[in-house]
Amino acid sequence: MSLNLLQAWQAAKARLEAAGLAGPVIDARLLVEAAAEATRADIVGDPYRALTPEQEATLEDYLTRREHREPISHILGRKGFWKIMLNVTPDVLTPRPDTETLVEWVLRDFPERAAWSVLDLGVGSGAILLSILAERPAARGLGVDVSEETLAVARDNAASLGLAGRMALLRGDWTAGLEDAAFDLVVSNPPYIASHVIETLEPEVRDHEPRVALVGGDDGLMHYRVLAPEILRVLKPGGRFAVEIGYDQKTAVEALFREAGAADIQTLQDLGQRDRVVAGAKKPLET
Ligand code: GLN
């Protein structure tokens, strides 16, 4: 028996609900759309369209994977972030809405037409850097990551968005290999989860996302200890920085940047009113 779009969506919802997933309605819709190569409008406007046997088999595969708590972003191979669509694989952290707080701050504070430079440390899929470059046509960026597989995803995303000409990528351990005072802006979403917390996370994150992009040592702060002085080193005088933090890391991360000599330190909150981004500046040269 072949299912139509509406039946497929309802059956998918029931299965994901029975599996105890938090968002069965949206998950079911996204998986049916992808498996049946349908749009959201098709499900409403053409609900009796039958799925082909191949589409049904694909949907079955997607639902089984989702029941095993594979993230939707991995099943679909893509995730929307800010105003762009990114390819996502298990080698990169799935872009999260929380991180849009950082992008919003950058776009508010950096002029639209000026030719400034941005460094993204731990570039991952390219979510932050590519969102910025997409909206600032004269800006240029460098993305650094330790993982070659990750850089391949970022490269692919830059190419699909037509931004490869303004983004360079470099494999490296944070700022090792970068010169002093080279960038107007440095951004980073480093791994910041304390090692002992990992096992308490949802299976989608714990079992499917790259640990190297999540774990920040025993207290979660390991990478900020390296990054705070190094970010100040590679910023131009007067340049600015913004790093994502865990909701309970404001005091510790602000202190690390203060010790590193940063000015104008402030913490921004995400849409859920959690502390999410520490931003600041390198002091301008005395005149
Ligand atoms: N916000 C992510 C999470 O809680 C962690 C991201 C990170 O470590 N940079 O899953």
Distinctive features:
single chain, 287 residues, alpha/beta, Rossmann fold, seven-stranded mixed sheet, 11 helices, binds glutamine
How are the secondary structure elements laid out?
Blueprint: H1 5-18, H2 24-35, H3 40-45, H4 53-67, H5 72-76, E1 78-81, E2 84-87, H6 100-109, E3 117-121, H7 127-135, E4 140-145, H8 148-160, E5 167-171, E6 183-188, H9 203-206, H10 222-234, E7 235-244, H11 250-259, E8 263-269, E9 275-281
Helix pairs in contact: 1-2, 1-4, 2-4, 6-7, 10-11
The chain binds glutamine.
Describe the protein.
It contains 11 helices and 9 strands. It is α/β, with parallel strands linked by helices and 287 residues long. The chain has 2 domains: 5-68; 79-282, Rossmann fold. The strands form 2 sheets. It has a 7-stranded mixed sheet with strand order 5-4-3-6-7-9-8, with helices on both faces. Strands 1-2 form a two-stranded antiparallel sheet. A hairpin with a 5-residue loop joins strand 8 and strand 9. It starts with a helix and ends in a 6-residue tail after the last strand. The structure holds glutamine. Glutamine (GLN) is lined by residues 96, 98, 189-193, 205, 214, 244.
